[in-house]
Amino acid sequence: MSDKMDAWNEGLKVVEAVYGPGSSEMMKGQENSPFVNEIVTNQFGKTWADSALSIRDKRMMVLGATATMGRPDLVEIQMTGALINGEFTDEQLDQIPLFMLFYVGAGNTTSLFRGIEAARAKVKKPAA
Fold first, then answer.
1. Which residues of 54-69 are buried (b: 16+ CB within 10 A; e: fewer)?
2. 122, 76 Cβ separation under 8 angstroms
3. Is residue 55 over pLDDT 90?
4. DSSP output for the chain
5. Percent of the chain with pLDDT over 70
6. How does pLDDT run across 79-103, given as a tens digit for each residue?
7. Is 24:12 a contact under the CB 8 Å cutoff?
């Protein structure tokens, strides 16, 4: 296997670790796209894979940046991965929008809240 394919496959493993099983399926067949290849091999294969910060640490930074954009769809993607990985308790999820309210404003925090709630609904835990 070529070094290029090794880097691609390693990046896909990290995509799975960040967003959960099956999440790398959206990348299949796009190995020759320069844009997608950069995301998989560099952003995931190197940056997300670097162990200096945990996946949760990196996710928190992405959530902060995403909150400033007012994009509940992107928040939902991050939070779904976080919930699949068991990175947050319900109490922590409740605190995220409260904390961010004063940093990104009410409108953007509403989008953050909606993204978190959509992820919660998607990854709902079975009743014990």
1. ebeebbbebbeebbee
2. yes
3. yes
4. --HHHHHHHHHHHHHHHHH-TTGGGGGTT-TT-HHHHHIIIIIIIIIIT-TTS-HHHHHHHHHHHHHTTT-HHHHHHHHHHHHHTT---HHHHHHHHHHHHHHHHHHHHHHHHHHHHHHHHHTPPPP-
5. 96
6. 999 999 999 999 999 999 999 999 9
7. yes
In the structure, what pLDDT confidence band is assigned to residue 127 with cuts at 50, 70 and 90? low
Query: At 10, which amino acid appears?
Result: E
Q: What is the mean pLDDT of residues 53-82?
A: 96
Tokens representing 124? 């709902």
122-126's contacts with Cβ under 8 Å and 24+ in sequence apart are 122/76, 122/80, 122/83, 123/80, 123/83, 123/84
Output the pTM of the full model.
0.87
